[in-house]
């Protein structure tokens, strides 16, 4: 099954809730791809031997990998960390996350500055392009195990909105304007 994504409501309730609009408005893989968000469905139970993951890493130059368990029992200052992840920001590089267990939400801004919520579950690998406004939170399960991939040494710097003069943001916006800048689909 493909990843689920939808346009969010404007509620200030717990960010771990789904926040569907009424009526619900789903976002397609093509709509995500138009924003530069790429997606693959992989086998999370055998990620060490997954040839498709190996090919993605080789093709895209992801030579650094680590694993992150996010849950109250394993993360010091859990609530504070979640609050930081949920602050709208960009990165200078792609953000690559592969969900191995559990689930959570990546929210991205569309061309009209509306939030699209992407629900990642075990087996979902997503790539957010450099310069896209986004944020992350867990869902009500309060647990996710993620593989983080990078080109070279990991860079953790988040640049909180507004970042319109940031070179990564300018490049991203230029790509949105130029048709065919982003591939239409990964899978």
Automatic annotation (TrEMBL):
Membrane topology of this protein: Peripheral membrane protein
Co-factor: note: Binds either 1 Fe or Ni cation per monomer. Iron-binding promotes an acireductone dioxygenase reaction producing 2-keto-4-methylthiobutyrate, while nickel-binding promotes an acireductone dioxygenase reaction producing 3-(methylsulfanyl)propanoate.
Gene3D superfamilies: Jelly Rolls
UniProt-listed Enzyme Commission number(s): 1.13.11.54, 1.13.11.53
Organism name: Lotus japonicus
Keywords attached to this entry: Amino-acid biosynthesis, Cytoplasm, Dioxygenase, Iron, Metal-binding, Methionine biosynthesis, Nickel, Nucleus, Oxidoreductase
UniProt protein name: Acireductone dioxygenase
Family: Belongs to the acireductone dioxygenase (ARD) family.
Pathway: Amino-acid biosynthesis; L-methionine biosynthesis via salvage pathway; L-methionine from S-methyl-5-thio-alpha-D-ribose 1-phosphate: step 5/6
Intracellular or extracellular location(s): Cell membrane; Cytoplasm; Nucleus
Main location: membrane
Annotated Pfam families: ARD
InterPro entries cross-referenced by the UniProt entry: ARD, ARD_euk, RmlC-like_jellyroll, RmlC_Cupin_sf
GO molecular function: acireductone dioxygenase (Ni2+-requiring) activity; acireductone dioxygenase [iron(II)-requiring] activity; iron ion binding; nickel cation binding
Residues noted as binding Ni(2+) in the record, renumbered to the chain: 89, 91, 95, 134
């Amino acid at each position: 099954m493909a990843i689920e994504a939808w346009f969010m409501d404007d509620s200030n309730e717990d960010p771990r809730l789904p926040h569907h609009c009424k009526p619900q408005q789903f976002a397609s893989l093509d709509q995500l791809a138009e924003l530069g968000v790429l997606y693959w469905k992989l086998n999370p139970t055998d990620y060490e031997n997954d040839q498709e993951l190996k090919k993605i890493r080789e093709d895209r130059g992801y030579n650094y990998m680590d694993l992150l368990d996010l849950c109250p029992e394993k993360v010091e200052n859990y609530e504070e960390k979640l609050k930081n992840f949920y602050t709208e920001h960009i990165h200078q590089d792609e953000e690559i996350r592969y969900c191995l267990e559990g689930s959570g939400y990546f929210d991205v801004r569309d061309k009209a500055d509306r939030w699209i919520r992407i629900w990642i579950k075990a087996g979902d690998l997503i790539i957010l392009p450099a310069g896209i406004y986004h944020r992350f939170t867990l869902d009500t399960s309060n647990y996710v195990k993620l593989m983080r991939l990078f080109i070279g040494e990991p860079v953790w710097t988040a640049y909180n909105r507004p970042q319109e003069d940031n070179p990564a943001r300018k490049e991203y916006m230029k790509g949105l304007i130029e048709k065919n800048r982003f591939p239409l689909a990964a899978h």
